Amino acid sequence: MKTFMNLNRFEAFSDGVFAIAMTLLVIEIKVPDLSHATASTAINVLIHVAPHIISYITSFLVIGVLWLNHHALFHLLKRVDRIALTINLALLMCIAFIPFPTALIGEYGKLQPIVMFYGLTLSLTGIVYNVLWFYVVRQYLWSHPQANRRFIYQASLWSIGYPIFYLIASLVSLSNITLSTILYILIPLFYLFPSVIDRQLSNLSDEIS
Amino acid sequence: MKTFMNLNRFEAFSDGVFAIAMTLLVIEIKVPDLSHATASTAINVLIHVAPHIISYITSFLVIGVLWLNHHALFHLLKRVDRIALTINLALLMCIAFIPFPTALIGEYGKLQPIVMFYGLTLSLTGIVYNVLWFYVVRQYLWSHPQANRRFIYQASLWSIGYPIFYLIASLVSLSNITLSTILYILIPLFYLFPSVIDRQLSNLSDEIS
Amino acid sequence: MKTFMNLNRFEAFSDGVFAIAMTLLVIEIKVPDLSHATASTAINVLIHVAPHIISYITSFLVIGVLWLNHHALFHLLKRVDRIALTINLALLMCIAFIPFPTALIGEYGKLQPIVMFYGLTLSLTGIVYNVLWFYVVRQYLWSHPQANRRFIYQASLWSIGYPIFYLIASLVSLSNITLSTILYILIPLFYLFPSVIDRQLSNLSDEIS
Amino acid sequence: MKTFMNLNRFEAFSDGVFAIAMTLLVIEIKVPDLSHATASTAINVLIHVAPHIISYITSFLVIGVLWLNHHALFHLLKRVDRIALTINLALLMCIAFIPFPTALIGEYGKLQPIVMFYGLTLSLTGIVYNVLWFYVVRQYLWSHPQANRRFIYQASLWSIGYPIFYLIASLVSLSNITLSTILYILIPLFYLFPSVIDRQLSNLSDEIS
Which of A129, B64, B139, D156 has its CA 20 to 30 A from that of B31? Predict the structure, then answer.
């Protein structure tokens, strides 16, 4: 397995795509037409922007959580080979795409296919993330045969759950759009607050050092 | 308290979001329709772009000042734990959102709810900044029990003032929209010129080294 | 030959332009008008977005592959002079332009001049890349007279092929637009999967170290 | 004079704004409406995009040249104080604004006030650049009293010329719009090709080391 790229540059480039995708989300919130609005009707128009703001927050958290995990993941590696680079390119392609389904669900969050499309995009992103995860972990286990496998199994389960949760949430939209949307918001919060990634990272890092 | 992320990468990522949010502000200044304009009428149309340029400058300074403070703040730390990361993610979410109220106030700066919305967004951003500030300072005081607390109290007062000033400025819009807008412009200038942050940083840094 | 700029800063700046251009591609996928759509008609509208998604993926890969090559190329150098900087500026100008023909072909992929324009843009980008390639390689051979020239000839052939393939693919559009579009998608895949760049880089790097 | 910020982070942040502003220029080239176009009429529409592409190239070079100079300038410093930071913030504010007059001149390049507005924006940017230049050079001369002043005088003349050239070019638009536009294109080329900045940098750097 040939080493290919310095980890620092690889991480800086990936971070760039994450940061830009997060910041571009706001561009998709269009300024509503208020040219005929008065002070009192303007409030009603602003309230209609609320779904956009909710989808902005949700997608911001989704990309933020993926960034945190991405960082934890590559801390396991010292160098990146071309296969990891190619899978990572596919992941960045999914990340950079998220502003589009976010704009769609912000504008047409009551249409079932739009709601489902949002969840399927995030599920696909999660699948690509898992491909990267297992590729990196396999390499890590090769170079660290005595690593604590229990932590790796735990973290892998955690990783596999992510696209499955989004798949379920997007299928839920077939019977209940509101519930589906609520699940979309809860999943990144669920992945943000518990300190599983912390433990996973600090435990593995401890073994490295 | 487990350490979580290397400060350099954390700062680079945050800087990215700050820089992108600042640069995206210009995207919200739409090209006016001049297809029926002559050389003489084009000037009048350009003059109507002025409010957009003023809101561009104001928001650019707001984000710039927050960036300077953000930098000063994290200089107090050596490493970032997950709680600081999560609060910082919430702060970046507010920063990356600023182009939207900026576009709104540039376009409809005479509608009171729009003017108030701008101020409330910046006030909320200031509140999240303060949560981060007190979290970081608390950690700093733990690891530096002999730190000069007078400087920290001074800088904290300075920090708390920020969201309060924006809250007041946004409430002023209920009786006087123009005054409210003028206050919005003065607040970042007020935080830019006095060298309080300088002193706060250099004093604390002196104690570190 | 005077040295001009630290390689790290040069690469970071170039990486920034690559990352932003890749992420901006999504902005060109406009949210379709679904205001009169029902759940069942929304799917049809979504299907019409497909060409945009295909052009998004294609251009993302094109820029991604150029980024990988750009990285491999500058690894041959230790410092960058002003001529390399100027050629690189021209290359970044082409890269940053790619979102525009991508938006055009996503929207009007059935119009022959649009299809041809896309290919010609990528061909021109490839030509500028080759100018940079030969400038850098010439310098490398000066400072490493005993370098393995067979690898360099191979890699150069590979480089020259890129704009020629895109030129051919864009000319094909004159008789068959669909075939031309398929070729556009295959070329970056062809340059992504074979590990020629790997070998070229690792071989030359081995000689350096 | 208190030092305020590490030069690396300051440069990385500035580079980010430069890179984003350059890449955002393409966003302002709107996809023309070709929904009723045939293969033959599409070419005519594409030709109408040409002014946008010329203004894209011009502004890309303008920002690129300013970036090269910005880099050369800060190489003279080791650390950045708050005054330099504040002037730099004003410069970045001008840089990040450039996409707007670029979009205007690309769309309405035949209206005299628009052509003049473009030149005045670049002239203002040049003035802010000069303020920064003289602030930095003054500091450099303090800490390097034996520096070769002839080079600094030469480079200063070069710097002062920049906003004056743009001011003249924008005033020329009052009598001849085409000539004014041609001058806008020539000025960055003039500042790109002669290797004055090279000499200035390498000479001063030689004195430092």
Answer: B64
CA distances from B138 to B144, B152, B156, C182 (A): 10, 10, 11, 59
The reply to whether D204 touches chain C by the CB within 8 Å rule is no
Cut 0.80: pTM above it = yes
ipTM: 0.85
Residues of chain A with Cβ-Cβ distance to C11 below 8 Å are 9
Q: In chain C, whose CA is at the least distance from the CA of D23? A: C96
- In the structure encoding, which two tokens stand for residue D2, read together? 């208190």
CB contacts of B96 in chain A (<8 Å) are 22-23, 25-26, 60
For the segment D59-65, the average pLDDT, to the nearest whole number, is 93
Q: Note the helical H segments in chain B.
A: 7-24, 39-48, 50-74, 82-97, 99-107, 112-143, 149-172, 177-192, 196-208
Mean of pLDDT values over A36-61: 88
Calpha distance B132→B77 (Å, rounded): 12
The set of residues, in sequence order, having a beta carbon less than 8 Å from that of C135 and lying 6+ positions away, is C83, C84, C87
Task: Count the Cβ atoms, other than its own, within 10 Å of residue D140.
Answer: 18
Give CA C113 to chain center in angstroms.
Answer: 21
Cβ-based neighbour number of residue C106 at 10 Å: 25
CA distance linking residue B178 with residue B115, whole number of Å: 9
Question: Cα angle at D143 between D138 and D145, to 5 degrees?
Answer: 85
- Whether A25 has its CB under 8 Å from any CB of chain B: the answer is yes
Beta-strand ranges (E) seen in C22-150 are 79-80
Among C23, B74, C80, C132, smallest CA distance to A13 is for C23
Best of A111, A117, A118, A177 to disrupt the C interface (most C CBs within 10 Å) is A111
Do residues C193 and C61 lie in contact, with contact meaning Cβ atoms separated by under 8 Å? no
Pair of tokens at residue D178: 């085409």
Highest mean pLDDT among B145-149, C21-25, C195-199: C21-25
Buried b or exposed e, range B149-173, using 16+ CB within 10 angstroms: eebbeebbebbeebbebbbebbebb
The single residue listed with the structure tokens 């806008």 is D184
For strand D5-6 and strand C79-80, is the pairing parallel, antiparallel, or unpaired? Answer: unpaired
Intra-chain end-to-end CA distance of chain B, in Å: 23
Place of tokens 């660290």: A144
